[in-house]
Specification:
This protein is an alpha/beta fold. It is built from seven helices and six strands. It is about 40% helix and about 15% strand. The structure holds 3-methylbut-3-enyl trihydrogen diphosphate (IPE) (2 copies) and magnesium ion (MG). The site of one 3-methylbut-3-enyl trihydrogen diphosphate has 11 residues, from strand 2. InterPro entries: UPP_synth-like, UPP_synth-like_CS, UPP_synth-like_sf.
């Protein structure tokens, strides 16, 4: 049954119909903090890495659903600059996932015209992780569909610090004057340079924080949180988040 807003609601028999977002107001850029893999596994009495492996299936579901909705950019927070603090076994496993994911999915991503990108600090990443990502980036670089942007060894504080260093170098070299630094120069000096800011930021796993993710870029993003763990995420949740996004009034500090 449709409600007054035109969203599908729970049917009388208890089964849930998926909210179908309005195709005229699809967010261009959706960013997701994919959290809760470990807790999902623990709930089932399984090792954390099983949670990460099942998280990969949710990545596939989210990608297909984002493509179906006509979202332009899907950024997925896969590994933060702080996640190196975890036990080595877990870090090693996480670093092997891009390879595993792409071995399974790259052909289909190519077929679906998806363009794979990566944003993060590559210096610390193992060679096998980088080469798997580079192959995917290279083989999809001319694709014109959904941009699937993996945030891997990404952290906003470091991203902003590196941008500031670069601008300081430009000042030192006499290329610009300090007064000439603009917000746009900072925005384009970040790892997202060239991409629109996220319209919608989703975090699974129940935590209500950003964990060093896109702090500059999310200044006016709409936020959507769910207690579901990342391996439980799929089309229904993405559609629900986008439907909720479409109910929001974005004022950017002005009046509606
Ligand atoms: C998200 O799940 C994946 C990464 C941060 C790499 P977690 O591994 O953080 O799972 P929880 O939050 O411990 O449940
Ligand atoms: C955020 O999750 C990072 C990723 C999803 C990659 P964390 O699990 O690392 O965040 P905290 O530690 O709960 O803030
Ligand atoms: Mg977590």
């Amino acid at each position: 049954m449709k409600n007054v807003f035109g969203f599908w609601r729970k049917k009388g028999n208890g089964s849930v119909s998926v909210s179908v977002p309005d195709s005229d107001n699809i967010p261009k850029h959706v960013a997701i903090i994919m959290d809760g893999n470990g807790r999902w596994a623990r709930k089932l009495g399984l090792p954390r890495i099983v949670g990460h492996r099942n998280g990969m299936k949710a990545v596939k579901r989210a990608t297909i659903a984002a493509d179906e909705l006509g979202i332009s950019v899907l950024t997925l927070y896969a590994f933060s600059t702080e996640n190196w603090k975890r036990p080595k076994d877990e870090v090693d496993f996480l670093m092997s996932l891009p390879q595993e994911f792409l071995a399974l999915e790259l052909e289909e991503l190519i077929q679906k015209n998806v363009q794979v990108r990566m944003m993060g600090h590559t210096e610390e990443l193992p060679e096998h992780t980088i080469s798997a990502m580079e192959e995917a980036i290279e083989r999809t670089k001319n694709n014109t569909g959904l941009i699937l942007n993996f945030a891997l060894n990404y952290g906003s504080h470091r991203e902003i610090t590196e941008c500031v260093k670069e601008l300081a170098r430009d000042v030192k070299d006499g290329k610009i004057q300090p007064e000439e630094i603009t917000q746009d120069m900072i925005g384009s000096g970040l790892l997202t340079g060239g991409l629109p800011d996220p319209d919608l930021l989703i975090r699974t796993g129940g935590e209500l924080r950003l964990s060093n993710f896109m702090l500059w870029q999310t200044a006016y993003s709409e936020l959507w949180f769910t207690d579901l763990y990342w391996p439980e995420f799929g089309r229904e949740q993405l559609f629900a988040a986008v439907t909720e996004y479409q109910r929001r009034t974005r004022r950017y500090g002005g009046l509606s």
